[in-house]
């Protein structure tokens, strides 16, 4: 039953919304009612909740499927000289709050399309990483399905790497076992690419993969794709393609390493957001390159389109390492805001909201329709193409003991 009178009674509106949001999002249960009021005050319209024009479900569904909506989100909007939440994000969260409270939107409908981030106190659209085309490419269902463990994070506002790693121990162990089996069957030298969204755990799993391979007697070189990026100022409004990296230098480095030659690679400073090389891929004065020796296995970590024709033939194994958006955002609160102090909170909200849909469309879905393997840590699932599955000893891997 719709009760629009709630919108003109601020205190009652807030109390009703609190109860409905606590049922909708486990993180909200960590708020006391007065704390919820504090957060809601930051989003309360200056003209009152009853001034809102609450859009219909169809209008919102159409909006969040449009690329133009996300392109319109600004990273650093300001009001009276202060960084603020982008108005479109604020408008959407207000509309969902109001529609939920008065009964226009059902909790089930909101849950199907959005997730709520309690620390940012905003709704964000859910990103679909396994549409039918991806599932079909990967054999229709996971090759291995374990018990998901990330639901333990539902009430968390932020997540540190130690607890994230512990939650993923079993699926990571299985993944590393599969990788060693594939390398043994395919031979070396092998260029292995591992990509995935920011804060999915790519860097950490690459380090653990490297340690596991070295302990088995292989020579391993880890290469961070981020080091081939050009300056962030140059990349900011461009799609993720070969124009935003030192492409020819990258191709030469990979070709030389596979031929057994050492290389000098660029170095990207994430704090200053600049490359050691200028836009023409020349080493800048006062900067230094990264020296990389050839190896049996080259671990390339980062988000680079491995479907680019000049690069695809060089890659022996293409992997997407995936963690769902709500978990990654909680990791970024801890890592990028609390520890690195890389982002201001409102900047993180604006940037993360804007980029997930765009990156899914431009990077991850194209990758997932041509990759060899997807590790879904949130779903505790390992997806393999039919070609990979055909050569795997499933019984041996399934009988391997899981870590404690």
Keywords:
404 residues; alpha/beta; seven-stranded mixed β-sheet; two-stranded antiparallel ribbon; 42% helix; 13% strand
Low-confidence stretches: 400-404
What can be said about the biggest beta sheet? Answer: 7 strands, mixed
In round numbers, the mean pLDDT is 93
Shape: globular
Helix content: 40-55%
Number of strands: 15
Radius of gyration, CA atoms, in whole angstroms: 23 Å
Helix tally? Answer: 16
**Secondary-structure content class:** alpha/beta
| Percentage of residues in strands | 5-15%
Major sheet strand order: 5-15-14-13-6-12-7
The N- and C-terminal alpha carbons lie at a distance of 49 Å
What can you tell me about this protein's structure?
By secondary structure, this protein is α/β, with parallel strands linked by helices. The protein is built from 16 helices and 15 strands. Strands 5-15-14-13-6-12-7 form a seven-stranded mixed β-sheet, with helices on both faces. A two-stranded antiparallel sheet has the order 1-2. A two-stranded antiparallel ribbon has the order 3-4. The protein is globular, with a radius of gyration of 23 Å. The termini are far apart. The C terminus is likely disordered.
Topology:
Layout: H1 10-24, H2 33-41, H3 57-63, H4 67-71, E1 78-79, E2 82-83, H5 87-102, H6 107-113, E3 114-117, E4 122-125, H7 132-137, E5 144-145, H8 161-167, H9 169-186, E6 190-195, H10 202-215, E7 220-224, H11 232-235, H12 247-258, E8 263-265, E9 268-269, E10 274-275, E11 290-292, E12 297-301, E13 317-322, H13 325-339, H14 345-368, E14 373-376, E15 381-384, H15 386-390, H16 394-399
Parallel strand pairs: 6-12, 6-13, 7-12, 13-14
Antiparallel strand pairs: 1-2, 3-4, 5-15, 8-11, 9-10, 14-15
